[in-house]
Automatic annotation (TrEMBL):
It comes from the Bacteria. This is Alpha beta hydrolase. Pfam families: Abhydrolase_1. Keywords: Hydrolase. The keyword Hydrolase applies. Coiled coil: none annotated. Residues 40-263 form the AB hydrolase-1 domain. It comes from Levilactobacillus paucivorans.
Length: 278
């Protein structure tokens, strides 16, 4: 199987005349897994170790949001708007049912996809994320701005500070993760523009003030996973509240890990994900 760092980028135009860039990897059987990335993320921000591991057993399709990377259009102003556009993308590919893998803001978008069209979803993995209106989610802008300033001053990638703990182990894991996501050397995706980035931040801020979604009547199995010390979406209470919001859920919390706990513990998470998706 071709590694994620080598798969080509494809595009599709939806009936709504929206162009989406995406990458596809894995076995061409079973229910496809749609991956939704974090704030400011593009196709090169997925950990290839996790994607390759899940792709050994499943088909993954990873799109750029509108206004990001190789996709056309402008960034949606709300999380609900992002979800609507992702649904248009899914339907343009002809899928009647999918699994979702949302990380961080992608987990917010995934929840809105479930809320808008629950019959479309077979299973969902919600990682490094929390419920709508969750505690501390409204602080993402200030946390991101402070970390970005620190990253510029120290000549480091901002994800060093946002995604990992500041323990010796966390710093080491951050360096290893950044090396993995920079392994692709050709045909890399275009970085998000400043306007699209601020639009996404405003969408998160608005989402953080809204009422939690009632998932209590849904039977959809959900895997919730996070590090035990998430700076961006505080693990307590958000990961725990999100798991409780679904009647059929499993919660995995990784020790000495932050927002990107599922990438730090990539081997275990791949096993957890494949077992869950099976």
């Amino acid at each position: 199987m071709t590694s994620y760092i080598d798969v080509p980028t494809k595009t599709i135009v939806t009936p709504e005349k929206k162009t989406f860039a995406y990458r596809e990897i894995g076995t061409d059987t079973g229910v496809p897994v749609i991956g939704l990335i974090h704030l400011s993320g593009n196709l090169d921000n997925w950990d290839p170790t996790v994607i390759d591991g899940i792709a050994q057993e499943h088909r993954l399709i990873l799109p750029d949001y509108q206004g990001v990377g190789g996709s056309g259009g402008k960034a949606a102003k709300t999380i609900q708007g992002m979800a609507q556009e992702i649904r248009e993308f899914i339907h343009a590919l002809g899928f009647k049912q999918i699994d979702l893998f949302g990380f961080s803001m992608g987990g917010f978008v995934a929840q809105e996809v479930i809320n808008q069209e629950p019959t479309l979803i077979r299973r969902a993995m919600l990682t490094g994320t929390g419920p709508r209106g969750g505690q501390g989610i409204g602080n993402v802008t200030s946390i991101s701005d402070r970390s970005l300033a620190k990253a510029i001053f120290t000549f480091k990638d901002v994800k060093t500070y946002l995604f990992f703990t500041r323990t010796a182990n966390g710093k080491n894991q951050a360096a290893r993760f950044l090396k993995r996501i920079k392994a692709r050397k050709t045909n890399r995706d275009r970085s998000i523009g400043w306007n699209a980035y601020r639009t996404q931040l405003k969408a998160i801020n608005q989402w953080s003030t809204e009422t939690a979604i009632d998932f209590s009547k849904l039977e959809i199995p959900v895997l919730v996973a996070n590090g035990d010390d998430d700076l961006m979406v505080p693990t307590k209470p958000n990961s725990y509240d999100l798991a409780k919001a679904f009647k059929n859920s499993k919660l995995v919390i990784y020790p000495d890990a932050g927002h990107a706990g599922v990438f730090q513990f990539n081997d275990d998470f791949v096993k957890q994900a494949n077992d869950f998706l099976r």
